[in-house]
Amino acid sequence: MKKILVVDDEKNIGKAFVQLLKRDYEVEVNLSGEDALKRLDGYRPDIVFLDINMPGMDGIETLRELVKKPDHSPVVMMTAYGTIETAVEAMKLGAADYIQKPFSNDEVKLLIRKILELNCLKREVAYYRASSQTEFSFDQIVGVGEELEKVKEIARRVAPTESTVFIRGESGTGKELLARAIHYSSHRRHGPFVAVNCAAIPEEIIESELFGHRKGSFTGAIEDRTGKFRSADDGTIFLDEVGDMSLKVQAKILRVLEERMVTPVGGTEAHEINVRVIAATNQDVEEMVKKGGFREDLYYRLNVVPLHVPPLRQRREDIPSLAEHFIRRFTHGDTKVTISKALINRLAEYDWPGNIRELRNAIER
């Protein structure tokens, strides 16, 4: 049963809460902020209803102390008419919401459901983030080859920094997996990881996808759009296949990297962004620079920490462990499903032009 703590010096308020909620919730009442803080030392209710106007330690003082506690309960401030400004101040201090006296039974029940649903959502997000950190750790990059180990070691060292990383390698070698491992091993791991396949976005809309647009800026722009760079704020943007971008888009990317500002298509206001950039390509960018197909200044901006992921044909020793890894994934860990040594040898003899992606698909079939 979910627990509700009511903190109010008016006894009739506490009694009203108990009477209203006792069938569905475990309700406890404290008559002062001091008593509530003592109780919360060994007790974690799902919601705290806290009155603003109390003798002694008032609601704001109590809230200031309560939010210092790690993993504190969400707090709903109870306010009388004329103290709405104080309730807004409480929200800035960390209160989840407020409710104005006199309130109806339906208002209280609706607010409780809303807070509990939000709590559930926060737990799911926390679980997803924790799972992502495990799923996309460097340990999940399967392989024991010397060249791959060197790549992983450099990536581990650069992950905690803010350096731009440029990952090179053929299609299907696991460039995005490496980029995610860098992100989830950095201090930005709680922020978003936004992957953009630059080769898959039509030229006419790529600027809108990357930088956003204002409503009415072009045919079909029926609402404002944030864009990938702003969506990645406080996190990492992964620009895959940057070699496929036009020179016009390359120039705009360079400007964003230099100024750390993004202006939506059709807009005049620039928005500051805080993103780390990891780029990747399967092309010979140095040759593209020589031929004028890729901006030299952008190349140097991206190529701060270069990493090269070797193709599977150059790390045949990893094929058995990769095959085993995919079998376990597709059979949900069933150890009864095995692969014969003869088949392993056949897999190791093949060149795998599609690299790990091709091997994965072959195992799944």
From TrEMBL:
<dbReference type="InterPro" id="IPR025944">
    <property type="entry name" value="Sigma_54_int_dom_CS"/>
</dbReference>
<dbReference type="InterPro" id="IPR025662">
    <property type="entry name" value="Sigma_54_int_dom_ATP-bd_1"/>
</dbReference>
<dbReference type="GO" id="GO:0005524">
    <property type="term" value="F:ATP binding"/>
</dbReference>
<keyword id="KW-0805">Transcription regulation</keyword>
<feature type="domain" description="Sigma-54 factor interaction">
    <location>
        <begin position="141"/>
        <end position="365"/>
    </location>
</feature>
<dbReference type="InterPro" id="IPR003593">
    <property type="entry name" value="AAA+_ATPase"/>
</dbReference>
<keyword id="KW-0804">Transcription</keyword>
<keyword id="KW-0597">Phosphoprotein</keyword>
<dbReference type="InterPro" id="IPR027417">
    <property type="entry name" value="P-loop_NTPase"/>
</dbReference>
<dbReference type="Pfam" id="PF00072">
    <property type="entry name" value="Response_reg"/>
</dbReference>
<keyword id="KW-0902">Two-component regulatory system</keyword>
<dbReference type="InterPro" id="IPR002078">
    <property type="entry name" value="Sigma_54_int"/>
</dbReference>
<dbReference type="GO" id="GO:0006355">
    <property type="term" value="P:regulation of DNA-templated transcription"/>
</dbReference>
<dbReference type="InterPro" id="IPR001789">
    <property type="entry name" value="Sig_transdc_resp-reg_receiver"/>
</dbReference>
<dbReference type="Pfam" id="PF00158">
    <property type="entry name" value="Sigma54_activat"/>
</dbReference>
<dbReference type="InterPro" id="IPR011006">
    <property type="entry name" value="CheY-like_superfamily"/>
</dbReference>
<protein>
    <submittedName>
        <fullName>Sigma-54-dependent Fis family transcriptional regulator</fullName>
    </submittedName>
</protein>
<keyword id="KW-0067">ATP-binding</keyword>
<dbReference type="GO" id="GO:0000160">
    <property type="term" value="P:phosphorelay signal transduction system"/>
</dbReference>
<feature type="domain" description="Response regulatory">
    <location>
        <begin position="3"/>
        <end position="116"/>
    </location>
</feature>
<dbReference type="Pfam" id="PF25601">
    <property type="entry name" value="AAA_lid_14"/>
</dbReference>
<keyword id="KW-0547">Nucleotide-binding</keyword>
<feature type="modified residue" description="4-aspartylphosphate">
    <location>
        <position position="51"/>
    </location>
</feature>
<dbReference type="InterPro" id="IPR058031">
    <property type="entry name" value="AAA_lid_NorR"/>
</dbReference>
